[in-house]
Amino acid sequence: MKEKLQKGTYGYLDKNKKREWIRAIVMLSIPIIIFIAGWLINGTRMTVVTVVAILGCLPGCNQMVRAIMASRYHSIDQFLYEETEAARGECPVLYENVFTTYEKNFFIDCLAISGREIIGYASDTKMNTEEAAEHIRTILQSNAYKQNVRIVSEKRVFLERLYTFASLGPAQIPFEEDKRYPGMNRDEVIQYILMAISL
Q1: What pLDDT digit, counting tens, does each position of 137-155 carry?
Q2: Parallel, antiparallel, or unpaired: how do β-strands 117-121 and 148-152 relate?
Q3: Intra-chain end-to-end CA distance of the chain, in Å
Q4: pTM to 2 decimals?
Q5: Which DSSP letter does residue 126 get?
Q6: Interatomic CA distance for residues 31 and 42, integer angstroms
Q7: Tens-digit pLDDT profile for residues 42-89
Q8: How far apart are CA 57 and CA 52, in angstroms?
Q9: Could you give the CA distance from residue 26 to residue 12 in angstroms, rounded to a whole number?
């Protein structure tokens, strides 16, 4: 049985990229097959079948854009994943996060959540980590969750903070179940929101 793709897990971006390209090829192949079949059967391209085939290309072209966007990002290094897993203890960690704004995209390799704290690691040293942190903070605040968000571009700093989170254990923050997210605790709600806004 195939493993279901899930955002926030290691290897998601590479699996998603493959899936998006397969869908694009299939969606573009169907109208091409319809066009060729209509041409062979009718002996001319000037039929309603050609119009149907052209209109059928629109979803395939939209899917092609999604595949191209997915190709811009790659899964994180396995060694980073193993280091993070060894350091995190019981802290929830989201891997391979791509957050988008109108102006920029932010690729954050790992995000760890511990109570009101979020620490992230971005391997892209050119990325503005303050802008990325502010974007995440704003999204969470608009969902009524105040978090201290810090994104770093030094792996050592990220792992040290993650070890600290793990040594302190799960943070105890007063929390009443959110009716929008039934059955979830606070960290799970934060995870859910972050996954919802990530590509």
Answers
A1: 999 999 989 999 999 999 9
A2: parallel
A3: 25
A4: 0.82
A5: T
A6: 16
A7: 888 888 989 989 998 999 999 999 999 889 999 999 999 999 999 998
A8: 9
A9: 21
